[in-house]
Amino acid sequence: KSIDAIFKSLGKLYFGTCADSGSLGKADNADVIKADFGQVTPENSGKWDTVEATQGKFNFAGLDTLVNWAQTNNKLVRGHTTVWYSQLPSWVSAIKDKATLTAVIEKHVTTEISRYAGKVLQWDVVNEMFDESGGLRVSVFSSVLGEDFVRIAFEAARKADPAAKLFINDYNTVEKGSTYAKTTGMISHVKKWVDAGVPIDGIGAQAHLMAGEAKNVAASLAALCAVVSQCALTEVDIVNAAPAEYVEVAKACVDIANCVGVTVWGVRDPDSWRASNNPLLFNSAYATKPAYAALVQTI
Ligand code: XIL
């Protein structure tokens, strides 16, 4: 049985990976995704600098490829990501007034999300908006609009695809323990926004882990999941991919009723954005590593 099949048998929706046209175009890589994973996240093709590098000129070539591949191969899609301070074109960062930035966010979110309405399970509407002390990261979005950019983005996203579950996604939220300032800051902000009617359905925890951090995931994730209707581990990779640590991380999601799935950030170590850390489940020959075997045996 694949880890995706095992996750589904435990009531989860998927066990997934990131991908894009390049990796899907490699037959060996695509075969692994078809066999072992149930969900794909666009690694880069959904980001602002790809989708709207020039104001009002949209490029969906890469994202269309990924979504079409997912539909053909019966895989779920996590949309990633509409509002993020990084991989953001300079024309957006240069905006200084509220009315312009509001209109720009609304058009970007609406255009991207409505294009795939009904085909995407979840969207990372806002990515990495908190700083390590749990406050708002300094970005053009927070500097010009304060926290209102969150409401603006999520309301546009809800209108654009009422069926999609709308996520707020971040890193360093499950690594350091449930009392870490960024974790508690995210929890209190999201709770406040949900209570105020901002249409946030879920929290995504990226989980780009260093060795030794897996033990902190269960309690941190439980605290995050408690304030939203859904949650997920969205970009998992673990330095050196210790099998017991992978099991501990995956089990954290399995054990939380509203954690819907786990996504690892890539298939093969050499294709990882942290390639030198060998953090994934398949080796350079597309063979399963011990961590994959441990997941299948233990979960
Ligand atoms: C990374 C990609 O994997 C790289 O290919 C790219 O050069 C930089 O971005 N948090 C996120 C992801 O939300 O989008 C990032 O992906 C990794 C960190």
Automatic annotation (TrEMBL):
The keyword Signal applies. Residues 1-298 form the GH10 domain. GO terms for molecular function: endo-1,4-beta-xylanase activity. It is an enzyme of class 3 (hydrolase). Transmembrane segments: none annotated. It catalyses: Endohydrolysis of (1->4)-beta-D-xylosidic linkages in xylans. It comes from the Eukaryota. GO terms for biological process: polysaccharide catabolic process. This is Beta-xylanase. It comes from Cudoniella acicularis. The chain holds residues 53 to 351 of 362 of the full protein.
